[in-house]
Structures are given as structure tokens and as C-alpha cells.
Amino acid sequence: MIIVTGGAGFIGSCLVAALHARGHEVIVVDRLRNGDKWRNLRRHAPARLVAPEDLDALFDSDIAVEAVFHLGAISATTARDGDLVWNTNVALSEKLWVWCTERQVRFFYASSAATYGAADRPELFSDDPARLETLEPLNLYGWSKQVFDLHVKARLVRGEDRPPQWCGLKFFNVYGPNEYHKGSMISVVKVKYDEVSAGRPARLFRSDCPAIADGQQKRDFIWVGDVVDVMLWLFDHPHVSGLFNCGTGVARSYLDLAHAVCDAVGVARVVEFIDMPESLRGQYQSFTQADMTRLRAVGYDAPFTSLEGGVTQYVRDHLSKADPYI
Fold first, then answer.
1. CA atoms within a 13 Å half-sphere pointing along the CA-CB vector of 92
2. What is the pLDDT of residues 172-199, one digit of tens each?
3. Which member of 95, 153, 182, 325 is catalytic?
4. Helix (H) or strand (E) run with residue 147 in it
5. Helix, strand, coil shares of the chain as percentages rounded to 5?
6. How far apart are CA 178 and CA 9, in angstroms?
7. 40 Cβ partners below 8 Å, 6+ apart?
8. H or E element: which one contains 175?
């Protein structure tokens, strides 16, 4: 049995689909609520669906669990409720770490590229644990992820017991199917698809940094299928533990992304620039690029999907279909 927190969400449901295809029984810890989020699990229903508030009862049972993938979080970079974010992103993560240690269950958890804050050069995106204390996240979400990464490091430095395998993954800008419930946090790829497929220009934020031209803000965009492949590879290699970046290692501009969406839809490349919302100014990462050296060093050698390849696959196999779900 494998537990996936956040298993009805974007990355979580894609992982659940892959585990289901492998024949694993999965317990999803999540809430479906009143929307279409249930559709993320329609083709690969879990063995059990457990509400987060019922997690303690699950822990108190004698269920045999092989691994926990902890992907549930308050993931909005605009989140403001510090107590809620702490309890969800830090305290719950601590509880899962302790339980996995006591039960000797393998533990995989989601960190974030948001921990890198205003880093603006490739060399500043190293996932070397020795650099953890130097990172300065720009928002509450990124800070909460940084806190748990630091707590894990402190436990290891103190020589405390740990799960038999543990891996933290700093997800960069993930896009792909099953993200449709995410509201304002949905990927830029999906937003640009909606615009251009409706006959409108692809709209991009003007740069709020004088040194960066409009549309030349760059991010490391990673196809969700590649993210799932990384998690499954780590699951298949139980001797590997550590905190790792999970991106492609290549920064691409938002203009590149908008052009890729236009090309995939088959329309002219028409882009319009608009002012960045006040709520994002000072919290917006204008550059991200994962340093993938450490993950490659432990043996992960699969290629990553190019931006154009991932966008084309997303549009062709999902967004252009009546049923866009995995």
C-alpha cells in the first residue's frame, strides 16, 4: 500500500495514475469538495480516500504501508494565512516524517523552487544542502517549504533516526493535465491555451525588472510526466536519499512558451503585454533554472521533455480533447 497526500490534486493524481498502472494499491489523503476535482481520479480510483483530518486514525491502524508520497500542501504563492500554511506545509510534514521513521516507511515529499526566492543566476539554484541556509524565499509558501527542508537537515545533522529512504523534490514550474481545478495557480500553458484557442492574443506580464525585457522572464518549465518519472525512479532506487531539484535544467522565456502554445494550437504568434498585478510585484521570480547535477550524479539519466514537446503533447492529447484528464 502506498499513501499519496494531495493525491486528488495535479501532480498527485498523475502519480496515482502511474502507480495504479503498476498495480499498486493507493490510499489518497485529500478532499474532493464540490467541484470537478474527482475527475482527476475517475480512471484510477484509490483503494481508499481519507480526509486529512482523519489521518491520525489511519496512522493508528495496523495498515502495512510501503511508502508515503507527501504532495499535499497549501501551494498558492499568494497565500496569506500563515497559521494555515504552517500547519499544512510544516507541521503535517513533520508528523509524516516522524510516523515514517517510527514505522520504517519510505518518505518522499514535495519541496519547491519557490525556496530560491530572487535568485537570478544559474549557479544560485544549487540543491546542495550546504547552501540551504543562504536561501531567501519571497513569499509565505516558499518560506514554509524552506522551513521543512531545514528541519530535515537539522534532524540529519543531529543524527536522529530517519525513514529508511527519504527524498525531497524541489519542483520547478510543472504543467500538464489534471491541473484544471487550480484556479489562479494553474499553469501559464493552460492559461495561454485558453486565450489563443478563443482567438485572443497570448497575454504576458510586462517585466518588473529594468534589466529584463518584456517576455524574457525565464522559468524552468517541466512536463508533469517527467516529474512522475523522477518520483518513480527514486521509488525504484531505495538506496537513494536526499533533497533534489526537479526541473529540466533549462530556463525558457515566457515568450518561448507563448509561441509554443500558438504553434501547438496552429494559430499565428500574437502576443500582448499587460502590467503585472500589484499583488505579484516583489514576489515574482523572473528567473529559475534547476541545477540537476546532484540528481544526475545519483544515477537519474532519463532525458527531459523540451518545452515545445511538452506543450504540443499537452495540447494534442489533453487540452484539445473533450475529456482532457489522464
1. 27
2. 999 999 999 999 889 999 999 999 999 9
3. 182
4. helix 140-157
5. 45, 15, 40
6. 7
7. 8, 9, 10, 13, 178, 181, 325, 326
8. strand 173-175
pLDDT at 285 (0 to 100)? 77
Residue 273 pairs in a beta bridge with 204
Distances (CA, A) of 284 to 10, 193, 217: 22, 22, 10
Distance between CA atoms of residues 70 and 231, nearest Å: 11
The amino acid sitting at 68 is V
- By CB neighbour count within 10 A (0-12 exposed, 13-18 middle, 19+ buried), where does 321 fall? exposed
DSSP three-state, residue 96: helix
For 140-167, what is each residue's pLDDT tens digit?
Answer: 999 999 999 999 999 999 999 999 999 9
Which three cell numbers, joined as nine digits, stand for 228?
512522475
What is the pLDDT of the chain when averaged over all its residues? 95
Grid cell, residue 230, equals: 523522477
Of 141, 180, 254, 284, catalytic: 141
Give CA–CA dist 152/167, Å, rounded. 10
Catalytic residue list contains 182: yes
